């Protein structure tokens, strides 16, 4: 595997191009590419948008396929592979336009969900190996399409389906593809 694979995220807002860092985050990049190359992200949604913080996706489909958000009855979580080791201590920082793995409160619970930082989020960085300070693993950065990220960050949101900050209009990841090893 090349140390800096390129992935394109095709959204209904445009294309976001990512350069991944397999040198610093080999487990995380391998995991992400397995999801990308299997077609897992096809028609998933960005389900969490917090302007000035992050946009998050990679874990939910719409229950009725891609339809009007107003007719959506609920979001369906996708079945994932087992969680991976958190590589947040790799020296990469949660800076603006970096991509990192989302996880639950347990440090080593990341599966398929990821987020793109909308600012330098230093509070998300690794500071120590304890649960509260383990951080979130950065594994790449946006190298083209920052205007797409910015447009997604400005969608209206509300609480629905038991989640906060859910876009009120569709933000769909139509396809993810690896374009360079």
Automatic annotation (TrEMBL):
Family matches, as Gene3D superfamilies: Cyclophilin-like
Catalytic activity line of the entry: [protein]-peptidylproline (omega=180) = [protein]-peptidylproline (omega=0)
GO terms for biological process, alphabetical: protein folding
Enzyme class: isomerase
EC annotation from Swiss-Prot or TrEMBL: 5.2.1.8
Record-annotated PPIase cyclophilin-type domain positions: 3-178
Key words, A-Z: Isomerase, Rotamase
InterPro entries registered for this protein in UniProt: Cyclophilin-like_dom_sf (IPR029000), Cyclophilin-type_PPIase (IPR024936), Cyclophilin-type_PPIase_CS (IPR020892), Cyclophilin-type_PPIase_dom (IPR002130), E_coli_cyclophilin_A-like (IPR044665)
Any GO molecular function: peptidyl-prolyl cis-trans isomerase activity
Family: Belongs to the cyclophilin-type PPIase family.
Function: PPIases accelerate the folding of proteins. It catalyzes the cis-trans isomerization of proline imidic peptide bonds in oligopeptides.
Protein name (Swiss-Prot/TrEMBL): Peptidyl-prolyl cis-trans isomerase
């Amino acid at each position: 595997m090349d140390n800096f694979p390129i992935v394109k995220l095709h959204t209904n807002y445009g294309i976001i191009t990512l350069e991944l860092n397999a040198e610093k985050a080999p487990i995380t990049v391998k995991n992400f590419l397995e999801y990308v190359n299997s077609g897992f992200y096809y028609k998933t949604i960005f389900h969490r948008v917090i302007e000035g913080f992050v946009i998050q996706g990679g874990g939910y489909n719409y229950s009725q396929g891609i339809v009007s958000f107003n007719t959506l009855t609920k979001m369906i979580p996708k079945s994932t592979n087992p969680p991976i080791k958190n590589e947040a201590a790799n020296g990469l920082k949660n800076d603006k336009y970096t991509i990192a793995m989302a996880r639950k409160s347990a440090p080593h619970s990341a599966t398929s969900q990821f987020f793109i930082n909308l600012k330098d989020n230093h509070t998300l960085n690794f500071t120590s190996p304890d649960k509260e300070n383990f951080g979130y693993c950065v594994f790449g950065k946006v190298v083209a399409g920052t205007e797409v990220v910015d447009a997604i960050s400005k969608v209206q949101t509300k609480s629905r389906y038991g989640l906060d900050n859910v876009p009120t209009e569709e933000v769909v990841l139509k396809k993810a593809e690896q374009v360079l090893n």
